Amino acid sequence: MKRRPSPTFLVISLCVTFLGLLGFENRARADEDDDLQRQIDTQKTGASDLEHLDTRHSATSELQRLRDWLAQAWDLRNKHEPDAAREVLDRCLAQGDLIRQIIAAAQIRSEVSDREATLQKTKDKIARQRKALLDAQMQKKVLEPRVGQ
Amino acid sequence: MTLRVHTMSRMLVASAIGASALGALVGLEACAPVPKPAALVSYEDLHRDPRTEVTRKQFPDLVASAEQLGQRAEKEWQSNNLDDSTRAALVAEIKLKTALARYDQAQSRARLQAIKTEQAEADLTLTEVEKDLGATTEQVKLMQQLSEARQAANEEKQRLAAQMSSQQQKTEQLSNQLTTEQKRTEAQVAVRTAETVDAAKYAAPEYGAATNMLAKADVEISQGNWQGAQASLEVARKSAEKATEIAKPIYEQAERATASKARDESLARDAAALPGVAVRIEPNGELQRLIISLGELFTRQQTTLEPGKDESLAPVAALISKYPSYPIQVIGHTDNRGRAGELIALSQARAQSVFSALVAKGVEAKRILVSGQGPNAPIADNKVAAGRKKNNRVEIIFLYH
């Protein structure tokens, strides 16, 4: 004959199960916060690196926007809104890529500008040397009859 | 009281109208569309950028993703989900900006490559131009140096030519001076030579012309007229030579005559001074004869000199040697006692003896002509002994004009 569990045992079991579930949820939330904090810190470090790379200040406004969004993500993380925080962090990743592209484009433009200046100097020098050559050729023509060549 | 009621009723009516209008406005506002989120507006502005179309060709996936998000933002906005619309628009804007930045990079890279190519070509062109310029400049420099050297050489040549011309003029002047001096000396020598033959006396016109031209030449020399002086001196020289030519034979003849006369006189004096001899001068046509008569040299009929008589011929031999230009005759004479032929032979033999004695004393034999005349040329009477003694003699005769 099978014995029925006592009500007290059931209540205790339910309490233990509830407390166990509650501890698991808290642990998961803490892991989520840590992960978000790690991502935010990583992106902040990346933002600082990008700021150092932006020597021509071509992405200042975009960098400021990134910092604002990272701050927003931190707030969302502190408010325990991980999904919203992750969405903002994803946007920050895209913004970081945009900043890198802007900085790279500015660097190439600067190099283009420098090389254009160099090319223009070379062209100016060619023009001067051609004029000097023309003058020398004229002088040579004047001198040729004198020296009989 | 009635007026207050009426006024209050008006106010109530106005309040009712105002309330109705306000309600209508609220109703209209509720029906109007919600304004677009700023992010969506910004995305749309960016999407209208003309570069978007060309960027699409290079980065189609990225632009398509941005446009997909933009459409989603538009739908969310139309559904009044402004937050979702904003989030989608922000990401769409980021992707579109990224695409544009990459497009800029590609464009800049292409431009950079083109610039590099152009720079390489420009460098090559510059090198060639500089090379040409260097070569041409070097040629010009060398030509300038050559031109300057030629100019300097021409100037030096001109200077040397001028110097040589000056030197030549000086040399020519010196040469003229020397030539003139030489001709003057020659003319003076010619005049002096003419003077030695007494040309002033024997060729007066020519000598006078020579001295006159010499004086004229001196004047011309003092004036520096070298050519004229040389011509005058040449004439003076020729005149002097001609005067010499004319005067010389006359002068020599006169001189010879004078000398001969003096010599003859000296001979006569010396002959007269000889001891123990008789001296006389006899004219014989143009010739004069100085006769030294030697007697008592031989005994009767003898042809050899008596002993001791040989020494008496020494002064005669010395006299003959002193005057070597006179031809000498040695002639023997006898008296008239005997046959004529024998007497002539005797006289010749005696003359020969005297000749031999004179030759032995140093007289040149070739100067002396020996002969015997026998009794044909007596100088005294043969009838008396004293006369015959005188006629036996040997005569030494000096012949002269």
Note down, in words, how this protein is organized.
The complex is a heterodimer of chains A (149) and B (401). Chain A has 149 residues and is mostly helical. Chain A has a domain of 89 residues. Chain A contains 3 helices and no strands. In chain A, helix 1 packs parallel to helix 3. Chain A is rod-shaped and about 140 Å long. The N and C termini of chain A lie far apart (139 Å). The model of chain A has no long low-confidence stretch (mean pLDDT 90). Chain B is of the alpha+beta class. Chain B has 3 domains: 140 residues; 72 residues; 127 residues, 60s Ribosomal Protein L30, Chain: A, CATH 3.30.1330. Chain B is built from 11 helices and 5 strands. In chain B, strands 1-2-5-3-4 form a 5-stranded mixed β-sheet. In chain B, strand 3, helix 10 and strand 4 form a beta-alpha-beta unit. Chain B is rod-shaped. The N and C termini of chain B lie far apart (221 Å). The N terminus of chain B is likely disordered.
Separate helix tally of chain A? 3
Q: SSE order of chain A, as H and E? A: HHH
- Measured as a percent range, the helix fraction of chain A is over 70%
pLDDT < 50 stretches of chain B: 1-9, 21-31
Roughly how many Å is the radius of gyration of chain A? 36 Å
**SS elements, strand count of chain B:** 5
Helix content estimate of chain B: over 70%
Rg of chain B, Cα atoms, Å? 81 Å
